[in-house]
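One thing: could you explain this record?
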Amino acid sequence: MLDFGDNAEPEIKRRREVVFIILSGFFLGTLAMLNILGISRQIDLSFTVSGIRIPFIVFIGVLPYPLTFLCTDFISELYGKKRANTVVWVGLLLNIWVIFILWIGGILPPKPELIENGLPPLEDPSRVFFQIRKWTVSATVASMIAYLTAQFVDVHIFHVIRKRTRGRMLWLRNNGSTLTSQMVDSIA
């Protein structure tokens, strides 16, 4: 155990808050990027089994999403259910903010060539913004409904398992709550 001298308690509190900010920042940053970058690119993860090609194409945003559940599990374990739920709500507000910024970007006065059909010419790089904006708003609204449901299920199940195991079996809490919430997210 490290000895921090007379300032032990303030130093420990400061470090705990730094860890909370890092976990929350990782969670919120990942969540905000998922709905924008997640739909803009697909990855082909197809594979072959016994000479049969199994197509498996996923949006890039699906790959880091499970890490958000790990973050809320750590926050639940270290800081409690209330703070974990607060981070989940902030994640929703952050995504509403992202949609708002995209909406503002779309209603600002367009370049003159956009007035005719609403989209820039194919060779214009700003065309990508309008396409991503169109996809992002609908995808974000749908994913936020699933997100809220799944994240609150994750936090709740984590604490139910924690209570039943009397604080032991962290691996069971992490895996059990994440597996259940991932199924909820896939269905919602």
About this structure: The chain is about 70% helix and 5% strand.
